[in-house]
Amino acid sequence: MTTLPSVLGTGLIAAGVGFLAVAAIGFWRLPDLLSRLHVLTKADTAGLSLVALGAACLTGTPASILPLGLCVLLTAISGATVGHLVARSVTPRGGRS
Amino acid sequence: MLDFLAFVALLATLAALPRLVVGPSAADRIIAAQLAGTGTVATLILLGAATGTSALHDVALVFAALAAVSGLAFVALRSPRR
Amino acid sequence: MIAFDLALAAGILLCAVSALTRRDRTASVAAFMVLGLLVALSWVRLAAPDVALAEAAIGAGLTGALFLRAARRLGPLRPAAGRTLAVPAALVASGLGGGLAWVFASASPPAIYAPLVAASLPESGVSNPVTAVLLNFRAWDTLLEIAVLVVALLVANLLGSRRLVPVSLGEMTLPFARIVAPISILLAGHLLWQGSSAPGGAFQAGAVLAGGLLALVLAGLAPTGTLVVRGALIAGLSGLAVFLIAALGSEALTGSLLGYPNRAEKVWIVAIEAALTLSIAATLCLLFTGFEKRKTS
Hints:
The complex is a heterotrimer. By secondary structure, chain A is mainly α. Chain A is built from three helices and no strands. Chain A has one domain (4-95). The longest helix of chain A is centred in the C-terminal third of the chain and has 29 residues, at 62-90. Chain A is elongated, with a radius of gyration of 16 Å. Chain A starts with a helix and ends in a 7-residue tail after the last helix. Chain B is an all-alpha fold. Chain B has one domain. Chain B is built from four helices and no strands. The longest helix of chain B is centred in the middle third of the chain and has 26 residues, at 26-51. The N and C termini of chain B lie far apart (55 Å). Chain C is built from eleven helices and no strands. By secondary structure, chain C is mostly helical. Chain C has helices spanning 2-21, 25-45, 49-74, 86-106, 113-120, 129-137, 139-158, 173-194, 202-218, 226-254, 265-289. Chain C is 73% helix and 0% strand. Chain C starts with a helix and ends in an 8-residue tail after the last helix. Chains in contact: A-B, A-C, B-C. At the B-C interface, helix 1, helix 2, helix 3 and helix 4 of B face helix 1, helix 2, helix 3, helix 8 and helix 9 of C.
């Protein structure tokens, strides 16, 4: 159980879950929509990719690494796109300078 | 250990709920749902790793693929053109 | 894990309450979306990944978009609208809940259905019990479900739901759509094929495909001509048509409605599911975009 991949995997997962927890706290504490969007995109990219990387270390089979990688890609690009669009829709002049 | 981490991820998911209820703006509520979606994907990955069920990867993948659709729809429907 | 389950159940109840009591349509829809996420997690905890997958595909992703579209069409909630119905609705709901609790409490513990399915699984042609029930043992039910979808499509068409003119989302959406659409097609194919041996199937695959198509539509990459809409309508109706032809064909071949020929069951099931996937995707997309190209006044 205490092999290097399992220790590394658990550590990475703990870091990712930490990101998610901090994001959850920040989502409640931060004062306005734009700073909350900032929180959302960090959780989507850093948090989830660390969790998936850790899970990939723990399982280590190609059949599980592919879906985990796709999960990370899809969530990261979803968060970035939605964050950008929501931010643009609330800024004056639609974000166009 | 993984069980505990999955529990923390679930708590992080649920922590988006107060913001969803309070708002204040509609965009706040939608991005709260988006954050809860990310938390759910993480929780599913952790449950899958804890129990060794690979079917959960498909569930997580479906969530990840559809995560942005409602967000996109929200922004696209936002300013009514009448 | 008991703490996990308790927190999950509390979250589900909280979501349901806020979806019902918020006087703001976006809040209700967002709470409903999160409810779908948590319910999918609870199906996972109940060791039912098939149901979790269906909930993920249909409950969390697409219904959110469809509800937002309906909310936009309905306009803001009028204050205190429907308050008079609250008491009868609460009575009906608690009566239903009480009845369900009574049934659950008085049900005999050994289930008859699961061993029966397990015993006749080899003759169904597939190894996933859920697919075996949905597409072979009780294919009749699924046929009627598809008929319900077709009725929804036709009614929406008859009501002349106005074609959506989405706000242009700008260039930043293009890379998103270009990445998500191919992946969702791949994922839909994977779910469809996997349905015969593992959690997956036509509804899930169709919903994922519809998600990818909606990303293309919202990014402005999909063609929007009248011909395309008409083609999508035909695709939406074709699922029921293929299912009916299969029913009549199997009647002619084996003498029983939807009793597939021996040793060819898997081919029949996968063919029907493939047609259903395309039809469900087209139906969900059309329900979101609307039909008539009417200039919005």
